[in-house]
Every structure is written in structure tokens, then in C-alpha cells.
Design brief:
single chain, 108 residues, alpha/beta, Transcription Regulator spoIIAA, 55% helix
């Protein structure tokens, strides 16, 4: 997983992407190492200017994570890929509006 993490973060910088979707639909189990790795990926991507969203956490996995006290605090999660794309579209639009220079009012 550390190789995946390093490759992903390097690609974020190379492509200057604004969003990362991590699809965990196929995972039946997430242990503390996997959760910590996902959280680290999200935090590193944010430092490189990209938002991260985790999609597809299965109900049994979510239940087990809660029982074990494992959290993805500070990391967005949604049900599926479609919602993940919509989430990132909203977030990048919000960031664009926040960073766009304000036009002078012309009054003076």
C-alpha cells in the first residue's frame, strides 16, 4: 500500500488534478492499517491541492469500523462513484469561486 500511496501522490502533482476518488467497493474488510493509509492518502492529496473522497464502503465494513473505533475523520465518504464525482464537482466549483479575484464594483 505504501507504493500505491507514493505513486498516487506523485501523480496528483504531475497531473495537477483537483480530486481523487478511492473506490473501496471490493473490500470486505478494512483493518486499522488500511484505514490509516486511506486517511494519509487523503491528507497528502489535500496538501498537494486535491480533495479526496472515499466511495463504496460496504455496510458490514462500516459496522466493523465503528465497532473497532476506526474513523476516517476529515475524509469525505459517499455511497458510490456517481456521488463521489458529484461531490468533487461541487468542491472544485466552491474552491474556484473562493479563489477567483473579485471584480471592481465600478463605483467610486
Amino acid at each position: 500500500l505504501s507504493h500505491l500511496r507514493e505513486a498516487l501522490i506523485a501523480q496528483v502533482g504531475r497531473s495537477r488534478c483537483r480530486g481523487v476518488i478511492v473506490d473501496v467497493t471490493a473490500l470486505d474488510v478494512m483493518d486499522s492499517f488500511a484505514v490509516r493509509t486511506l486517511r494519509d492518502i487523503a491528507h497528502m492529496a489535500r496538501l498537494r491541492g486535491a480533495e479526496t473522497v472515499i466511495v463504496g464502503i460496504q455496510p458490514d465494513v462500516a459496522f466493523a469500523m465503528v465497532q473497532l473505533g476506526l474513523t476516517l475523520k476529515g475524509v469525505a465518504t459517499v455511497l458510490d462513484l456517481e456521488e463521489g464525482l458529484a461531490f468533487l464537482n461541487r468542491r472544485t466549483e466552491e474552491r474556484f469561486v473562493e479563489t477567483r479575484p473579485k471584480k471592481p464594483s465600478g463605483r467610486g
